[in-house]
Amino acid sequence: MKKQFPIISFEHASFQYEGQSQESLKDVKLIIKSGEFLVITGQSGCGKTTLTRCINNLIPRFFEGRLSGEVIVLGRSIKESDAGEAGKEIASIFQDPRSQFFTTNSSSEVAFACENYGIPHKEIVKRVNSAFQSLNMENLKDRDIFALSSGERQKVAFLAATTLNPQIYVLDEPSANLDIHTILQVREILSALKAAGHTIIVSEHRLFYLYGLADRFLIMEDGQICEELTGEEMAELSAVQMHNRRLRPLNLDLIQIERKESICRSEVFLQIRNLSFSHKAMPELLHNISLEAYKGETIALIGENGCGKTTLGKILSGLIRCRQGAFYIDGKNVKQQKLSDYVYFVMQEADHQLYTDSVTEELRLGNKRIPSIDEKVSQILKMLHLENFKDCHPYALSGGQKQRLTIGAAMLSEKPIIVLDEPTSGLDWDNMCAVANAVNYMREAGKLVFIITHDLEFISLTASRALLLKEGIIKDDLQMTEQNNFKIVKNFMVEEGGE
């Protein structure tokens, strides 16, 4: 048996970030055994990330604050250890791997940690080649980091971590920006690392890919571990029991589509004819795309990372120009440069769409003439779980809170078409449901909403229709009023990118 001795222990550990009024960890008692696969879950702000920052030694050196009690990792207190030295034995993989890259070439990035620790060149070459071979990712050798998809960048982060052969892997929301097919590839990597005897700690909201893999689940709330379940006990929970714990389902088969009230179709509101697009000197990404859409629809754009979903959304919003294509809105031909008059695009990177110095003013911006604007702002803040942050500066919010704020601005927009790019990336169950309610609110108000997403649960709650993109075309167009069509969408998303 691998799990024989404690490799990490929390002994009445509490931590309060500098400048914060409350503790993010409160009297945590926890033992993690060598070779154990542990999943930490719970609502945003429950303390998951803070706990992982203690394990990988980013607390208290990099993230300063008051630490009481003890956290012992590999036999040494984190109060005395050095994060740089700890990096030899503890690999960290973050939600956005770009935040941890130091080079622009995939092979150089995989070699970087070894070079940083002064490992001889011949040994580095051996380890880098071994990493690409052992994880079956030789197609990622010597690639431009900026040309890789989100999933490919996440794989490079894994490769870079394995070259030092660390005892412990710490992952913080690794699935947030990945399509389901790539997430299942990440599962295969984690399974191989577990089989090799590594200790693995994953902080995560999306749990389905950890089904049957994790030894233990910790559910956190308000800085404390409120429940501990074995993998077998977690698998026995029903969807209702998971939702009562404010968690996403562990088993994708438990997701049920929620029927949307039919909104009367009259005339086609949006038409796209023969849209094609390619980046400079690159193969065609979108080929002769044509579609028709109606007000009061929510259309999910789905497909693997890099298939052109976001590109299609940006073309529709007038943010980038396509090589060819015609657009008709409400029966009138609209030039590409005028599409932005009709379409509101919400980016995945919320920072680029925040302009004022308070949450309330962000929603009032450009909307002060709307009747009862203050009442509508209060309603939206409540719907999106932002009412307690109404006076905060937008840049003081968490990533998920910023994301919901930009969606609130879209709700107030008078533009008839809304495009949301990965609106639930990294969101817990409660906040994903809040965004789903916002989307349904806009649909019921007669807007045409496009959601670019990999989130099956979100699709089940919101979409009235799904467009399946693959190899530059719309592979299928499904009305989401039947469970059978939802099964087709689920199978497509799980199998996308496969042979």
TrEMBL record:
Belongs to the ABC transporter superfamily. It is a peripheral membrane protein. It holds the Pfam family ABC_tran. Its main location: membrane. GO terms for cellular component: ATP-binding cassette (ABC) transporter complex. This is Energy-coupling factor ABC transporter ATP-binding protein. PANTHER family: ABC TRANSPORTER ATP-BINDING COMPONENT, HEAVY METAL TRANSPORTER. The keyword ATP-binding applies. Keywords: ATP-binding, Cell membrane, Membrane, Nucleotide-binding, Repeat, Translocase, Transport. Residues 8-247, 270-496 form the ABC transporter domain. One of its GO terms (molecular function) is ATP hydrolysis activity. It is found in: Cell membrane. Probably part of an ABC transporter complex. Responsible for energy coupling to the transport system.
